[in-house]
């Protein structure tokens, strides 16, 4: 059985409060432990695409950065990879396959926790090719911060070979290109 530091802190705080002393201190410790380890909630995350002044193009590859901003009021943690889905005109679903790995332009940092204070952003690199015979004419991109059902849909007018996308894990800084 794995016990996290947050669980130990909460258990200690409850025991301290039960002893009849320092109730306010225990309450503060509990809420601090909860805030510090809370997973980012979908309603507090805004996903966008951005070039950040860097063009990703070469050898039939194109790319952009994914930017995920904590719009909430509390610090939270995100880890892993974005869930992605392409949409055509009229928001019709297009077949999409996403590879979680290095992209043509950037190394994958791998799954790790990224702590986002209010207003902070996490980044990932998104790359595709665009010259194959089975090109999907994407018009929109669904970005799910953690691969769940909650997502943002952004304009994404790109031709994507076979609907194949490559994406790196979220990181606290834009990937080095």
Molecular structure report:
This protein is an alpha+beta fold and 177 residues long. The protein folds into 2 domains: 33 residues; 126 residues, Immunoglobulin-like. Helix content is 16%, strand content 39%. It contains 2 helices and 11 strands, in the order ααβββββββββββ. Strands 1, 2, 3, 6, 8 and 11 form a 6-stranded mixed sheet that branches. A 3-stranded antiparallel sheet has the order 5-9-10, with no helix packed on it. It is globular and about 45 Å long.
Salient structural properties:
alpha+beta, 6-stranded mixed beta sheet
Compile the SSE list and pairings.
Elements (H helix, E strand, L loop, with lengths): L4 H14 L4 H15 L7 E6 L5 E3 L2 E10 L5 E4 L3 E5 L9 E4 L12 E4 L4 E9 L5 E10 L7 E10 L2 E4 L10
Parallel strand pairs: 6-11
Antiparallel strand pairs: 1-3, 2-3, 3-8, 4-7, 5-9, 8-11, 9-10
Helix pairs in contact: 1-2
The oligomeric state of the chains shown is single chain
- Uncertain regions spanning at least 5 consecutive residues: 1-35
Distance between the termini: 40 Å
CATH architecture of the largest domain: Sandwich
Secondary-structure element order, as H and E? HHEEEEEEEEEEE
Question: In summary, what is this structure?
Answer:
This protein is of the alpha+beta class and 177 residues long.
